[in-house]
Structure formats: structure tokens, C-alpha cells
Amino acid sequence: MEKLKNTKILAIFALWLALFSWGIHGVAGRFLALNNVSMLGVMELRFLIGAVLFFLYLLITKNLDLSYFKYYKSLLPLSFIGLFGNSIFYHLGLKYIPATLVMLLENLSPFFVVLMVIIIEKSRPKRHEVIALFVSFIGLILIVLGKGGLKISNAQFYLGVFLEVAAGLTFGAYTYFSARFYKKNSIDFSFSMMMNILFQVFLYSSIMGLPFLFTVNYPVLKQIDIILILEMGLFQSFLAYLLWNYALSKLPTASTSILFYMTVVFTSINEMIFLKFYPNWIIIIGSIIILISAIVLSIKSRKIS
Predict the structure, then answer these.
(1) I need a surface site. Which of 164, 235, 238, 304 has the fewest CB within 10 A?
(2) Which residues does the chain have with pLDDT short of 50?
(3) Distance (Å, rounded) from C-alpha 6 to C-alpha 11?
């Protein structure tokens, strides 16, 4: 029992680190977009950096196990839909709708995860999960309103909405089916297994995204652009997905997905640090609501055996 308790505490710690890392993504991505760097090209570079880092880790630690390629039938759809597809929808949607609406729609993913738990597993989410889900979403709405609300800015608005809803759905699918995969293979689960699985997922996405590699105008990249791309590959691809998947393997799936709302809070904090962003009282209240909900949910998740 003590070992299980320590494992859950470690998983919760890993989860919060992953959320903090993803909270940097929006700030770094916005900076690169303002510098006219191809975001689809950045996406592919992130995939490549992630795949290389997972491979190097496995090679150096002598844990590379090609026998895990037997899971390709499960991992190819997970990679194509949950990682590659999610990134495509997310970046294309940015072209048509305001960033505040993007933030709202991509965070529909916890709702999709809870829906998958209900439909596929025939299981009802726990009461505290449902409460945390809706309370966190209310906090998110306040943050969106504090950042200017929603504005229909062009004729392709509804296309953008569709793309970002698809982004939320595909990330929800990645979260749910990743957790399902690890728990289905829990007897054989180990850290090296997870690293081999993540290497495959990023390898498949890297291969699918190779054409986008040529959309980046490399000669005009500034030093800060290169640093941010490397940072995104290291922290948002390699580290964040490693920590996120570890949390998914140890914690309740619905609770873990709901805690994803903390990325919005961490994004606002990073905007304050790096972009000199000054939040108004509505954003602060929304952030506090999400933070309290996340803390309560983390405590509940730790107690559930």
C-alpha cells in the first residue's frame, strides 16, 4: 500500500511538470508565429527532436527493444490521430479563429475523454471528477472573457471552429487510448516499455510529417528561433509526453485529462514572465478556480487505489 501511495504521488508530480511544460508551448509558439516561422514546419521539427531523444535514451541505456514494434497496429492509429492529426488540426485552426477561442475549444478534450470512458468502458465518472470538469471549464471561460472574449473575425470562422474541436477530440483520443493501452498491458508495463512505445509514436508521426520539414525558411531563422524550436522539442515533445504518459499509466484517466486545464493557468503565468502580460481580475479569478479544482482533484486521485 505504501509503495502504491508513493507511486501515485510521483505520478501526480510528473503530471504537474508536464502541464507546466505545455504551458510554455503557447508562449514559444506565438513568438515563432510572429517571426513568420512555419508552424507546421516547427511541428515536424518537434516530432523529429522527440523521436531522436527517445531513441538516444533507449540506445544509451541499452533498453531499445524492437520487439515492441509488435504493437504497431495499436500505435499507428494512436500516432496518426492523437499526435500527428491533433497537431495538424490545432495549427490549421489558428489561421481562422482568435487564439482565445482556440484555447477554449482545444480544452474540450477532457469532455471527450469522459465521454469515451462512459461509452467504451460503460463506466460512470466519479462525482468529484464531474464537478472538477465543469468548475474548471467555468474557470477557463472566465480566462477567455478576461482576454477579450470571442470575436468572429472572418468568413472562415466556422471552419476554424471545426478544426479546433477536432483538435480537442484527437487529443482526447490520444489521452484515453494511451491510458487504455498502458493499463491493458499493465503486467508487462515498465519505464523502458513506455519509452519504447513513445519512440514508436513519435517515429511514425515524424515520418508522416516529413513534407512539412521543407516549409521552414532555414536561412532566415534567428538564434532565438532555433533556441525556441529546440526548447519545444526537448520540453514539449520529449519531456512533457514522457511525464504525461507516465501519469496516464498510474492515475485515473478522467481525472488526469481534467487536470489538463492547468496548462491554461501556466500559459498565463509564462506570458507574465516572458511577454510582460498583465492579467486582469477576471483572468486571476478564473485561474484561481482552475487551480483550486486541480489541487482538490490531485488529492482525490492520490487517495483512489
Answers:
(1) 304
(2) 305
(3) 9
